[in-house]
C-alpha cells in the first residue's frame, strides 16, 4: 500500500509541537510503509528537517501574507486550499507515471475538507483525516461572524466524508458519536506522546551546570510552543505557595511567544517572583531537553520550540 501523507507543519525546523508531531508521524509511517509520499509546503530554500525523511516540498502559496493588510485567518484558509489543489496535481501525476497512491492521510482541516469533498472522490482515493479538535472550536479560527457557518461545514464534511478518522482522545471519539457524525469503531485513537527517540533520561547535575542553575534548588519546568490557553497564569499564581514553602524553588517556562512572555513576566514581578521564574523564549528541541533533565518536576507538552 502506498500512502500520501499531506501535512502543513508550522515549522520545517521542528520549532513547534505541531511540527514535531508531524515529523514523528511521518517517520513512523515511513518505517511501516517505506513508499509513503509525504507532501509539505516550504518557502523557497527554507531549511527543512522533513527532507531527512524524503518529503516532497511544494512551493508554499503566499496568500497568508495578505493578512498584513487585512488581519484574518481566512487568508490562510485560502492558502491551504491552493496547497490542497497542488497536492492533488502531484498525486494525479504520480498515477500517470505508474506510481499510484492507494490512500491519502491528511493532518490539516482545510486540506482534509478539499480532499474529502473534491479531490478524493475525483481521483477515487479514500482519505484518512487525523483530527485533534473541531475547527469551529479552534482559538485561531476565522473570527468573522459570517464565516462561522463555514467552519461548521469544514468540520462536518472532513469528519463525515473521510474513510476513517484518527484522533488523540476518547473524548473526541465520543463527541463525534454524540453528534452522529461517526461510529466509534470508525475512529482510531492515537494518543499524543513524546518522541522517545529524543526525550530520554539524562544527567540532572550535568544539565544544571550547563544551564547555570543551582544544584540544590527545587526546579519545576513547563515546556510548550505557546502559553496561550494553557493556564500558565494560574501556574504562576500557584507557584507563590511553592515559593513560600521552599524559598529556593525555581520555575522555568520554556517556550512562549514574546507578547505572552511579557504578560507573564509582569505577573511574576507583581507577585514578587521575578527572580524565581526563568523565561527562555522559544528554543529548538535540542535546547529544550536540558531543562527537562534539570527538572525535579516537569510538564512536557510535546513541544519543540
Brief synopsis:
With 305 residues, the chain is α/β, with parallel strands linked by helices. The protein has helices at residues 17-32, 74-96, 109-123, 148-161, 170-179, 204-211, 232-245, 258-270, 285-294; strands spanning 3-6, 37-42, 56-59, 103-106, 127-130, 164-167, 187-189, 219-224, 250-255, 277-281, 297-300. The chain has 2 domains: 3-189, Rossmann fold; 204-300, Glycogen Phosphorylase B (Rossmann fold, 3-Layer(aba) Sandwich).
Rg over C-alpha atoms, rounded to the nearest angstrom: 21 Å
State the helix count. Answer: 9
Strand order of the largest sheet: 3-2-1-4-5-6-7
CATH class of the largest domain equals Alpha Beta
Notes on the protein architecture:
- The structure is a single chain.
- α2 (74-96) runs parallel beside α3 and α3 (109-123) packs across α4 (148-161).
- The longest helix is centred in the first third of the chain and has 23 residues, at 74-96.
- The protein has nine helices and eleven strands.
- It starts with a strand and ends in a 5-residue tail after the last strand.
- It has 305 residues and is of the alpha/beta class.
- The protein folds into two domains: 3-189, Rossmann fold (3-Layer(aba) Sandwich), CATH 3.40.50.2000; 204-300, Rossmann fold.
- A seven-stranded parallel beta sheet has the order 3-2-1-4-5-6-7. A four-stranded parallel beta sheet has the order 10-9-8-11, sandwiched between helices.
- It has helices at residues 17-32, 74-96, 109-123, 148-161, 170-179, 204-211, 232-245, 258-270, 285-294, and strands spanning 3-6, 37-42, 56-59, 103-106, 127-130, 164-167, 187-189, 219-224, 250-255, 277-281, 297-300.
- The model has no long low-confidence stretch (mean pLDDT 91).
Amino acid at each position: 500500500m502506498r500512502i500520501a501523507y499531506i501535512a502543513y507543519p508550522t515549522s520545517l525546523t521542528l520549532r513547534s509541537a505541531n511540527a514535531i508531531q508531524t515529523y514523528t508521524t511521518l517517520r513512523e509511517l515511513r518505517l511501516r510503509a517505506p513508499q509513503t509520499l509525504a507532501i509539505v509546503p516550504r518557502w523557497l530554500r527554507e531549511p527543512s528537517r522533513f527532507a531527512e525523511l524524503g518529503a516532497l516540498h511544494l512551493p508554499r502559496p503566499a496568500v497568508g501574507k495578505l493578512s498584513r493588510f487585512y488581519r484574518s485567518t481566512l487568508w490562510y484558509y485560502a492558502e491551504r486550499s491552493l496547497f490542497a489543489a497542488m497536492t492533488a496535481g502531484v498525486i494525479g501525476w504520480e498515477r500517470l507515471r505508474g506510481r499510484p497512491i492507494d490512500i491519502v492521510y491528511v493532518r490539516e482541516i482545510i486540506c482534509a475538507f478539499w480532499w474529502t469533498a473534491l479531490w478524493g472522490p475525483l481521483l477515487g482515493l479514500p482519505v484518512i483525516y487525523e483530527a485533534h479538535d473541531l475547527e469551529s472550536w479552534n482559538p485561531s479560527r476565522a473570527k468573522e461572524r459570517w464565516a462561522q457557518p463555514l467552519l461548521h461545514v469544514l468540520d462536518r464534511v472532513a469528519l463525515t466524508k473521510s474513510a476513517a478518522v484518527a484522533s488523540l482522545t476518547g473524548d473526541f471519539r465520543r463527541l463525534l458519536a454524540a453528534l452522529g457524525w461517526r461510529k466509534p469503531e470508525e475512529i482510531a485513537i492515537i494518543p499524543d506522546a513524546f518522541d522517545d527517540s529524543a526525550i530520554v533520561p539524562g544527567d540532572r547535575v550535568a544539565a544544571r551546570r550547563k544551564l547555570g542553575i543551582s544544584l540544590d534548588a527545587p526546579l519545576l519546568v513547563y515546556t510548550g510552543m505557546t502559553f496561550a490557553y494553557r493556564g500558565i497564569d494560574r501556574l504562576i499564581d500557584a507557584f507563590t505557595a511553592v515559593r513560600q514553602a521552599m524559598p529556593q524553588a525555581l520555575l522555568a517556562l520554556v517556550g512562549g511567544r514574546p507578547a505572552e512572555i511579557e504578560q507573564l513576566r509582569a505577573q511574576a514581578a507583581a507577585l514578587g517572583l521575578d527572580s524565581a521564574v526563568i523565561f527562555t523564549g522559544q528554543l529548538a528541541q535540542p535546547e529544550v531537553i536540558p531543562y527537562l533533565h534539570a527538572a525535579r518536576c516537569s510538564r512536557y507538552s510535546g513541544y519543540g520550540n
